[in-house]
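The data are set out underneath:

___
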Amino acid sequence: MSAPQQTAASPFIRACRREPVPHTPVWFMRQAGRSLPEYLKLREGIPMLESCMRPELVTEITLQPVRRHRVDAAVYFSDIVVPLKAIGLDLDIKPGVGPVVADPIRGRADLARLRDLEPGDVSYVTEAIGMLTAELGSTPLIGFAGAPFTLASYLVEGGPSRNHERTKALMYGEPELWRDLLDRLADITAAFLTVQIEAGASAVQVFDSWVGALAPADYRRYVMPSSVKVFDAVAGYGVPRIHFGVGTGELLGLMGEAGADVVGVDWRVPLDEAARRVGPGRALQGNLDPAVLFAPTAAVEAKAQEVLDAAPATGHIFNLGHGVLPSTDPDALTRLVDFVHRSTQR
């Protein structure tokens, strides 16, 4: 039995398909990683990108929060720039900064560096997912990748950016070059997701971390075609496709329209309003503010209940509105999972 068949009856997959569930499923973005002491101990002295390329390490890191928190899905431990590194781009992840690109994209000639991603470029991903699905059994594994816009922003800016000046200058000033850049990145993202699905991932999530910097008209014109291309490329596999961005309240309808089965919602828009914006036919994921976890347990549970009360009756996956913050108490996450499960027992 393939991994997606093994996990088809899991609460997470059923919620993605808007089917009845025994309880609201829970997982957390960035659940695998920096908030866990066992992760910090394991990663000691190992650079981030190197840790993403060691199958045994990836497997253990991915499993740690499943064991500790009893979440309803595992998320593959990696980074959105891994496929870019795999095709030979000179980049690194600097602690406290994020991805830094040695030679940013500045003109059409630079596109030649963005060659196609081949499965052999990321053989460690295939190996790790094989190990993970064997361990996880009926618990789904979520594969993930960065969306073309967010990858383009890193490549054009040379690293994280507050205002995305160079990115927008290229997008508005050289629209043909921009289109070709995003089209090439869409192929790379789709190939990276395909590798994960074929290795056994039960669902995939596309992270468009920076796309909230755009107005809806600009998203539709400059970004949406590449998002559609990514989702269309993996549609035939039949695994749920999740689309998530930060600060994307004004884009929720368009993000659903781009082809996702599940739209991730950050904490700025209540889920009942998000459902109205996204429209029928899509599940929702979210959306507790990650900072709430620093409050006392009673306050966390009250805010979590607000999320649950606003959520649709079917088709809701409980998550944070962004990733787990590094200094979060892991026990607060464990208690939150238990609370959501108990509160939504059908």
User: Anything to note?
Assistant: The mean pLDDT is 97. The two ends are 28 Å apart (CA to CA).
